[in-house]
Design brief:
The complex is a heterodimer. Chain A is an all-alpha fold. Chain A is built from 14 helices and no strands. Classes of the chains: A mainly alpha, B mainly alpha.
């Protein structure tokens, strides 16, 4: 089977979804059997990339692991202290706060983006004309630089002069502190991320809907499926593999949420929006507490991979 | 009866589309409008909707600040890391697709999933020791860690979709590995290559973290320069928004030039903020 470039993330699925019926790596065998000499071996072509990865990724990663076992502070000698950094984390309220903020933001944003993304994707799928234009417009939020997004919302959400409070007041509602309020700062970030990334989920959903065989929906319609029942029993179940891709991709980005927060609030007010990633960064590059920061970052990486693994395990159990 | 219902559906659909466009575009439009306001008008409350546009903010950016130099920095880094990414990832994607091996692609996916902060700290220490902090080459190298996985993952399905028989006949005709890649494979995947290069350029142009830590005073990118504006508590909103508009220009132009072609590449699994 050849993987056609499909807009539904099917390439990713084909390579890593083990539940997939068609084995993606199968057709190599007969060729390899009659391989004559090195003429057919293309392995050399991958060597530069692997070398680059070894030097720029694997080596620094190993160094980070080693750092996390030391009490290294920038400009001082590093002393090996075993797992003491990891133990210290357990008693560090900022670590637990970071973990809490990370997951609060993650769950809230992911939920909002899936709901709105499905709605928007289905709307796009229904459109007779103007779809091309809308698709292009929808790409802009998540392809704009995070710095721009941050600056834009800082100006709009300014508590005293911003347009957002002006709108609230015109509607007779009390003004809000937005990003300066410790109580609502995380939901506000969830909304901003939803503004930015819902279009991405919608484009994935649209891709999934367009590769869906028409026959199924038609047959269900003949059997009397309408509106909600069509959505509940036909569209959503068929959309599950696409939504899985969307969830994985968004999870990876949301769990290491950094840019927008560091640009706007730096984790504030106080530590109210200090995700684990922001905390690790500040600990390492503002306080130069690099041993401990490395331990925090490795923990964060473990959290990201843990969630991705759990998701793919869940996918295999659910069998679609 | 039926026509009435169809008409209602059509009207609600148009309203929905208008609402979506408004939600997406109004914040961006607000940013552009603010960049065209005089410094007095931009912080007026309640905000003014009608004003005489001025380009003062933009001209100030380029006359009072070495904004153009930083623009060049950003361009050098983005073009450099896109080129290096293509150079490394395209042959690798071809080899991975040819041999149907998955582990290199998986390792690259791991790079894509790991938080950038995990790399930036060891890089900061190692590159400080090498005395490379604040050079363009450091930014190009580190940004390639972003562009390369993206290019690889965009290119894989394109190489996969080229029939093997084409390469086999080329090989029989005496084509060597590099010829096979350059003369046979690359021309067949040019559309994918364009998409990959554009997405790589945009993601490198937008990337914040690495340039923040590893960029020097003279080599920082536009992104970091603007972040410093924010950090200094700059209240000159007009100039701030003008900077935002200038930084957004290259990605936006590319989106509208390439149009929907980008979507296939974006949603194929290799996506970056």
């Amino acid at each position: 089977m050849v993987w056609a470039p499909s807009p539904s993330g099917a390439g990713l699925l084909a390579r890593f979804g083990r539940g997939n019926a068609t084995a993606p790596f199968a057709p190599a065998k007969p060729l390899r059997a009659r391989r004559a000499g090195s003429a057919l071996s293309m392995r050399a072509l991958a060597v530069p990339m692997l070398l680059f990865l070894a030097l720029m990724v694997a080596l620094p990663l190993g160094y980070a692991v080693w750092l996390s076992l030391t009490d290294f502070r920038f400009g001082q000698e590093a002393g090996f202290i075993g797992l003491r950094n990891y133990r210290a984390m357990l008693y560090d309220p900022d670590f637990w706060n970071g973990l809490y903020v990370t997951f609060y933001l993650y769950v809230l944003s992911l939920g909002l983006q899936l709901v709105f993304g499905c709605y928007l994707g289905m709307l796009l799928n229904r459109l007779r004309f103007g779809r091309r234009f809308l698709q292009t417009v929808l790409m802009s939020p998540f392809l704009l630089p995070p710095v721009v997004i941050g600056m834009m919302w800082l100006v709009i959400l300014d508590p005293s002069l911003g347009a957002a409070n002006w709108i609230l007041q015109s509607l007779g509602l009390p003004p809000s502190l937005w990003l300066a309020s410790p109580r609502i700062v995380v939901p506000v970030f969830a909304l901003l991320d939803t503004w930015q990334w819902t279009p991405f989920v919608a484009l994935l959903v649209l891709g999934g809907l367009q590769t869906m065989p028409d026959g199924i929906a038609d047959a269900a319609a003949i059997d009397g499926a309408r509106g909600m029942s069509m959505l509940r029993y036909i569209t959503l179940p068929l959309l599950m593999p696409t939504l899985f891709i969307a969830v994985v991709l968004r999870s990876v980005d949301l769990l290491r949420f950094f840019d927008l927060i560091y640009i706007t609030t730096q984790g504030g007010p106080g530590t109210a929006s200090q995700t684990l990633n922001v905390y690790a960064f500040r600990r390492g590059l503002e306080f130069f507490d690099m041993g401990y920061a490395s331990a925090l970052m490795i923990t964060l990486a473990a959290v990201v991979f843990g969630v991705v693994l759990a998701l793919s395990r869940f996918r295999r159990l659910a069998e679609w | 009866m039926v026509t009435a219902r169809v008409r209602v559906a059509r009207v609600t659909q148009t309203l929905e589309v208008a609402l979506v466009c408004a939600v997406v575009l109004i914040p961006v439009a607000w940013m552009i409008a603010s960049s065209l306001k005089h410094s007095v008008e931009v912080t007026r409350y309640p905000p003014v909707l009608l004003f005489t546009p001025t380009l003062d903010n933009f001209s100030q950016l380029f006359t009072m600040l070495p904004f153009f130099d930083y623009f060049v920095n950003s361009l050098v880094v983005a073009v450099g890391s896109t080129a290096l990414g293509l150079l490394l990832a395209v042959p690798a994607a071809f080899a991975i697709s040819w041999h149907r091996v998955s582990w290199p692609a998986t390792f690259v996916l791991f790079t894509r999933m790991a938080p950038g902060t995990l790399f930036v700290l060891p890089w900061f220490i190692l590159f400080t020791k090498l005395g490379l902090i604040g050079t363009h080459s450091v930014l190009i190298l580190t940004h390639t860690v972003v562009t390369m996985p993206l290019i690889l993952w965009v290119m894989l399905p394109h190489f996969d979709s080229v029939p093997r028989s084409i390469f086999e006949s080329a090989l029989i005709d005496g084509c060597r590995q590099f010829d096979c890649l350059l003369r046979v494979a690359v021309p067949l995947v040019t559309p994918g290559l364009t998409v990959a290069a554009i997405l790589a350029f945009i993601s490198s142009w937008n990337f914040f973290l690495f340039a923040l830590v590893l960029g020097g005073i003279d080599t920082k990118t536009l992104i970091v320069l603007s972040f410093n504006f924010v950090g200094e508590g700059s209240t000159d909103w007009g100039r701030l928004m003008a900077a935002a508009v200038v930084i957004s220009a290259p990605p936006i132009l590319m989106i509208f030039a390439a149009g929907r072609g980008l979507i296939g590449g974006l949603t194929n699994g290799a996506v970056k903020e």
